[in-house]
Structures are given as C-alpha cells and as structure tokens.
Write a structure and sequence with these properties.
By secondary structure, this protein is an alpha/beta fold. It is built from ten helices and 15 strands. The longest helix has 18 residues.
Amino acid sequence: MTKYLLSTTCLMLLLFWPIQAQEPITSADNHNGTVQSVVPTRFTTISETNYKNTLALRGYKLDTQGLLIESLDASTVYADLNSDVGFNPASVIKIATSFAALTRFGPEYHFETSFLSDGVVNKKTRTLNGDLILYATGDPVLQTADVLRLARQVVKAGIAQVNGNLVVSGPFSYGILYTTDRAVRGLSATLRKVGVRVKGTTKVGDARGDKLATHISSSLRDILFFQNAHSHNPTAERLGEAVGGPKAVEQFLVNELGVPQGEVYLSHTSGLDYNRITPRATVKLFRELVFWLNQYGLQPQDVMPVAGIDPGTLHSRFTAAEYRGAIVGKTGTLPGTDGGVSTLAGILYTRDRGVLLFAIFNTKGPVRTYRRLQDGLLKDVLMECGGVPEVSASLHKLNN
C-alpha cells in the first residue's frame, strides 16, 4: 500500500470539509501500519458512563460488548470497553472487503466480462475451430441476465459449436453463484441452453483472441456504495472472490494496515457466519480508509451511507434534525449468530471535537434493543461534543 504522506493542507481540507471552523490536528498515526509512540488522552464522557450503566442494568454482561470511540488523529479516546477483544463484526467487515478492493483496483475501476474466440469461425457450419474464451475480472454485480445476454451474443456471432475448449480467464461469479467454480458450471449450462455446444473441456487459461461480446460494470466506487448502504451480502461475497477470498482480506488487514494477526479472523467477506475483529482494529480500519480516500479526492460518504439521508440500513436512524447527516458508517446484524449480534461503526462529525471514529459491537442480546442503545450512545456523544457541525453542503454526494 502506498504510504500515506499527507500534507498539512490536505489533512486540513479533509477536516474542514464538510465541517467549518475546526482546529487542525497532528496525527498520532502515520497511516502506514505503525503508530507513533504517543499515548492518547483519555477523555471520559457522561455518554460512555450512561451507556455502560444501561447495559449492566438491562442484564447484559459487559464482557460480551465492545466499544471504542477515538479522535481521527488517535490522540484522544472518548469511550473504551473491551477494545482489544475480538467480537463478531457482522456486516461491518464489508468495509474491510471494500478497502481491499479499492487498493487493488482503484475507485473508478470498471469490471469487464467478455467472450473471445481463439480460432476461425466457419459461418456456414456455425463452428468455431478453436477455443471459446471467457475473460472475467470478478464483476461482483454481474447478473444471470447479463451472462445470458453474453451467451446469446456468441450465437449471434455465428457460433453454435466449439471444436476446442471453453477457457476461463480470471475470477468469475454471477447471480447467486459466488465462486468461480460454481459460476463456470452455470456458464456451461447457459451456453447449452442457448444452443452452443463445446466439444472440448472447460479449463483455466489466458485471455486471447477476438472479442465477441462484452459487459462492463459500473465503477467500483458506485458498487461499494450500494453494497455498504444496503449491506448486500451477495455483492460482498463475490467482491471477496475477486480479491482472493476471506483470507486475502484478512491478510490485507494484517500486512497492509498493520492489524495484529490475533485481532482478526475472517470466514466470509460479507460478514456472514463467524468472524472476529477487535474494536481497536476496526477503528484503525476506518482511519486508514478515511486517509486513503482523501488521497483520491474522495470522502467516506462516497462508499458508505450517511445516516438519516441515504437509502439502506441507516436510512431510518438518526433522522431528527439535531443528528441527521452527522454519521457515515456501516451496520451489522446477525440475529441468530453468537447469541444475537448488532454492530455499528464509522465516522461521527461533531462541532466541538471534530471528526471521531467509532466501533460499537454488541453480542448475546436482542438486535433491536442493541440498535436503540447504539443510537442513544452516539446521540449523547454528539450532544456532548457540541452537536452537528455547520456544513457547507449535504454530506450526501449527488453522484451516489
């Protein structure tokens, strides 16, 4: 990963937009996977105390709850509860998958899926004397209808029989077929359905030949916004396939962001099932993502929803005027896993304390109750920190 060498001007621009009249800060994290030896200031809030007391009074064990709220520069801690303990992040882990994809492909990357012919087409016999190539780059939003259209374009190109092989190049998934192996089997069935017979075998190989049909996706940035706003599991599972699977995302966190190996374990890139990450590692993930996006002239709201404004899982939360637009983040919900999991992590914009990062992990309890407690905590923190800052424009970008 590129080392984050932000100029003071760039950092101030990040902090000033969309917030006005905020003091510049000196970063304690150098954004290359290591942290300078600066001990953060512990700032105890009434919000934190009330939140912990409420959990205890409701009978929830505090050792099943995780929490960390820090300043963007990591110089101040505003709340901390088991921040070094691994919890199930649920769909919050989609942000790790998003970041891994962004660093690999870039925000404006468009996925391509194409059929190519490597050989001569006999128009009279409608035969390709050679191989039919599928070139794919791992489009996570490719649909069954798109694959069917591509297959029909092969027929329109005058091919009903392939005397060679069906060669697949690159990661390929579509619809509910999340892995390349499953998708290739589905592709073979689709080709037969439209009348294309392949005499040879299906194998992995290099892309070559003349292009017959192509499908181009929307930009990765737009794909990520949809995925994270709606917490769309199929997109995240297939995006994970494109970057190498759960272990590749896990190693991205460890090797590129400097998350300790023992603080993260991933089994699914969507957050389904059993995954683990600490609140501290999660806050670090968001911090590094904020600075990485800034390098590309982007803001967190370009790839994540704004609470109370954007459609999706955060649309009906923080809708009141005194909170609306202050939070950009990601939810997580697994009612039947780990005794009930509800998570919320992201960025909180405040008037007096600037940009805060937070990770709230609740387990072994009812999801609806945990959501109310999360909202109450962040609302109280926001009010303690001066409320919503003045903004020059809505956090929501019209191009999302």
